[in-house]
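Hi team,

Below is the intake form for Cupin domain-containing protein from Cyanobium gracile UHCC 0139. Please confirm the fields before the structure is written into the shared record.

FORM ID: S-0412
PROTEIN: Cupin domain-containing protein
ORGANISM: Cyanobium gracile UHCC 0139
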Amino acid sequence: MAPFRTALSRTVELVPVQRTVHGDALFSAPRPSDETLIAEIARGDAFELFCHRFQTDQLLVLRGAIDLVVLQNRQLRRIPLREDEATWVCIPPGVPHGAINRGRIPALLVNAVLRHGPSDPRDYQPHPVPPRFRSQWRRLAVA
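The structure came back. Fields below:
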């Protein structure tokens, strides 16, 4: 697992959560961010991708599990994320990504967003998975 780099890169990175336990409470070390968002991912595979121009998404699953799907090097890559295996995934600008939730409950995620320029409303509009990748997406959804 590579450490998080602050320089802009086109590589998705996985960073184990640094955490401490105090009594019955578990605390995670904070991530640097400009904005913190909470997202809920419903069950299903929406065939949607997001691609941000000027932000790095730093995602951590708080409840449930998802398969994060990123489009890199002309292929889809599946990154399993689960609440009981706490890992930050850092998605740099320009990397299309989406999620598949095959669990019985909606997954709850935190996104510690790093801004590298102005927010663009188009960044939050989902785009359909390109037709040439749909069969691969289906295979990932049942894997």
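SUMMARY LINE: The radius of gyration is 15 Å.

Thanks, M.
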